[in-house]
Write a structure and sequence with these properties.
Layout lengths: L5 H11 L5 H28 L4 H22 L1 H9 L6 H15 L5 H8 L1 H27 L1
Helix pairs in contact: 2-3, 3-5, 5-6, 5-7
Length: about 150
């Protein structure tokens, strides 16, 4: 077996590696991420046209996008979209919902408590724990700063 020098190895990898499609992938990710955001804006405008207040419409959009992301993750559609769209599906709210639902679905065969219940927070757990604890600490600080 012949040992390759670094130069020979580099030449071989260049020869057999497919050309990078970074530009096309970035444009596709931008288009898919923009489409998800556009869907959110369409939902928001629909909720506003139904007479919802601005803040309540924003909350309804968030919960709708989370529910859609969870449903499409459960059906396996979100994963198929992510395979083609890449980073475009990481739009914060839908990507976060997908990250919470995916491990839960993967471990459903272990039961509702030890599978779904415990694995649901594998990825999102630290974020949720930090958010809850930080908000409590900030609330306590705010309370004592405004009390005296």
């Amino acid at each position: 077996m012949k040992h390759l020098s670094k130069k020979e190895y580099s030449e071989l990898t260049q020869k057999f590696s497919p050309p990078s499609k970074v530009g096309r992938n970035c444009l596709w990710a931008f288009a898919v991420g923009g489409a998800i955001c556009l869907l959110g804006e369409i939902l928001r405008q629909n909720f506003l046209s139904m007479g919802m207040e601005k803040d309540l419409a924003g909350l309804a959009v968030s919960t709708s996008l989370i529910a859609l992301s969870a449903i499409t993750t459960a059906l396996g559609w979100y994963h198929r979209l992510a395979c083609h769209a890449g980073a475009g599906t990481l739009v914060p709210i839908t990507g976060f919902a997908n990250a919470v639902v995916s491990p839960a679905i993967e471990f459903k065969c272990e039961g509702m408590v030890t599978g779904v219940g415990s694995k649901m927070f594998v990825i999102a757990g630290p974020v949720i724990v930090y958010g809850v604890l930080a908000s409590e600490v900030y609330g306590i600080i705010w309370y004592f700063m405004n009390r005296f």
